[in-house]
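Here is one record:
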Amino acid sequence: MRNTLLAVSLATAALAVPSLADAQAPAAAAPASPHTFTGNVGLYSDYRFRGISQTFKQPAIQGGFDYSHSSGWYAGNWNSSINTGAGFPGGGIEMDFYGGWKKTWGDWGLDLGAIYYYYPGTDATAANFPANPKNGKTHTGGVNNTELYIGGSWTWLSLKYYHGVSDYFSLPDTKKSDYLDLSGTYDLGNGWGIVGHIGSFKLKNWDSGARNTKANYTDWKIGVTKDFSGWVLAASYIDTSGKGSCTPVATLTEFYCFGNSASGATKTKDASSGTVVFSVSKTF
């Protein structure tokens, strides 16, 4: 009987005390969060939106924040300094708000979403903002723009189409303007990369045939990037087929001749002409 009780006691003790293997087993890894938050900041020698200078060919500071979910849904905000004479009377900053859904399948990807461009402080009037040359309509108040987009990608190439669902940056009667963007980013290794882009813009219901109403154009870019521990240095040549000659006679200036003030009367520059843009940026 004593031997039986001793055996039972030893067996119970063996079950109660964890083995050495159990004590050394690593704790189970916590499941990965479905939420991702990132931020970005950059300094640019010129802010070019679809090839057109938004800062009177002066430097711009930019930055924003992004949220994404493992299901594919995402949202974000991006901001840049701008020049009031680039079509934003009274404004000094661009604020973009966007959201959508994107997914990848191997080398292929799909991106669907919407973007709203907001320019706080802008105040358009008949004196500082273009009237539609076809019907004379004018816009007063704030400047903004809303677009829907759909994009596809394959390895290092992407194609994205933007369609305006509001007047294009508040230019009267320009709803349904569109932009097509073909871009490529190729990794050369050791932190080096090359980037390329070609885009086509069409402003709806605007061109009357006069020299200063020709707004449709093609833009392109070719550049090189270098990653230094997360800081990306870049140099890109950007040019367009846009018309921006600033002939002194006001009626002969072309559509993309911008001024450095809302009236454009002090100094003017061809915002569509080619230039090299240098930048340093980081995503964190």
Q: What stands out?
A: The chain has one domain: 33-283.
